[in-house]
Write a structure and sequence with these properties.
This protein is of the alpha/beta class and about 400 residues long.
């Protein structure tokens, strides 16, 4: 199992997905796992992974050196992404496993950036978890950025799209986060090798958060230096929040997540807005939220933070861009609105109506348990990875 970031702690969408894979498989198989470590903070979490794995290698990734490799790769007509993650130390780890003549029942590469490392590994089945298509993200960056960076981003998007098609063809199976992402693969031969696998949520983690509070606290969570999150927060601040305050002068808005930039920090000049920065446990903040908002402005794979909010029993107001990636029904599981006034109306309706909040809370928890619970999804993941449910103790 190869990961481009340490799959712990599960504090963001891709890490939640990765950690559930490791947690579940480690209880049933012997795991060889290698992952890049790109922050000093990561080193404190290595023991949690070592105790789960038969072999575990933490490979340091120097970001400045990785960026120079990526730029050089781009100049050679290849992708920046593969250059960035093309690390000699990771190659040495994989080559060592090859030299030890270990035959693995299955191998998993998490993201297209890790896929090249598995080409030489003796293995019964290769699975690539793309989560979503990185080339689409680069296209969005190109569309929202001015020249000359837009031109560079578009080159990366085009080259990476070609590389993604090559990898899908080479691997036995490629996983995407939902059907919408799968259907971006339009070649019918390649599409047949792609399946959706939703990010699993450990619903029991949120059991103690289910009471709906009467405090008028609106909440949003996420990594605040991620562009789609920045766009979502600034849109709500500009277009919706003034309307909410007009009707509920005692309402508060909590923006919870690490690395907020100056634009988001400045929102805290309003005494009714709290910008927390990094927090130790997101559940401490979800617990207090009366309404959870997801004002997504960009088409994304799945907003895992929305699944967290649903599992925690938070009534959710979400835009269509976020709703389209989730198995849920408007009006039953949460409320959908796109334009500022309807979005504000739905938020205010929930601040006014405790009974409706309780109704949506119960529906959201049931949705998370039924469609995204670990006990539902992880046995299927195991089957997808090994081709059939393998006996306990096999190598992966």
């Amino acid at each position: 199992m190869l990961y481009h970031r340490l799959p712990y702690p599960p504090n963001k969408g891709e890490k939640m997905r990765a950690w559930q894979q490791v947690r579940y498989l480690s209880e049933r198989h012997r795991l060889w796992l290698a992952a890049f470590v790109d922050t000093e903070e990561d080193y404190q979490y290595l023991p949690q992974l070592r105790e789960r794995c038969h072999r575990f290698e933490a490979v340091p990734l120097n970001k400045k050196l990785a960026l120079s490799r990526g730029g050089f790769n781009l100049l050679r007509g290849r992708t920046l992404t593969e250059g960035y993650y093309g690390c000699e130390a990771m190659w040495r780890t994989v080559h060592q496993w090859v030299e030890e003549k270990i035959f693995f029942d299955a191998a998993l590469a998490f993201s297209s950036s890790m896929a090249p490392y598995l080409e030489e590994l003796p293995v019964g089945r290769r699975v690539l978890d793309m989560n979503d298509l990185d080339s689409e993200k680069w296209q969005r960056y190109a569309a929202s950025t001015s020249w000359p960076m837009s031109s560079l981003f578009r080159v990366e998007a085009d080259r990476l799209a070609t590389r993604e098609r090559e990898l899908i063809a080479q691997y036995d199976l490629t996983l995407m986060v939902n059907d919408r992402e799968c259907n971006r693969v339009t070649d019918p031969v390649l599409r047949a090798k792609v399946q959706s696998f939703h990010t699993p949520i450990d619903v029991t983690t949120y059991d103690e958060l289910r009471e709906v509070h009467r405090d008028k606290i609106i909440g949003y969570t996420g990594t605040m230096d991620y562009k789609p999150n920045i766009e979502a927060v600034l849109w709500f601040a500009r277009e919706v929040w003034p309307q909410v305050k007009q009707q509920h002068a005692d309402a508060e808005w909590w923006i919870v997540g690490r690395n907020p930039g100056r634009d988001i920090q400045n929102l805290a000049e309003d005494p009714q807005i709290k910008v927390t920065g990094a927090v130790r446990d997101i559940r401490d903040y979800l617990r207090r939220m009366r309404v959870y908002i997801a004002p997504v402005q960009t088409e994304l794979g799945v907003q895992t933070k929305v699944l967290e909010a649903l599992a925690a029993g938070r009534p959710v107001v979400i835009t269509t861009q976020g709703h389209q990636g989730i198995w849920a029904e408007d009006g039953r599981d949460y409320l959908v609105a796109d334009r500022p006034q309807p979005f504000a109306e739905r938020v205010c309706d929930l601040l006014n109506n405790h009974a409706r909040c309780v109704e949506l809370s119960r529906a959201g928890v049931e949705l998370a348990r039924r469609n995204y619970g670990t006990d539902v999804l992880m046995p299927r993941f195991e089957e997808l990875l090994v081709g059939a449910v393998a006996p306990q103790g096999s190598a992966a």
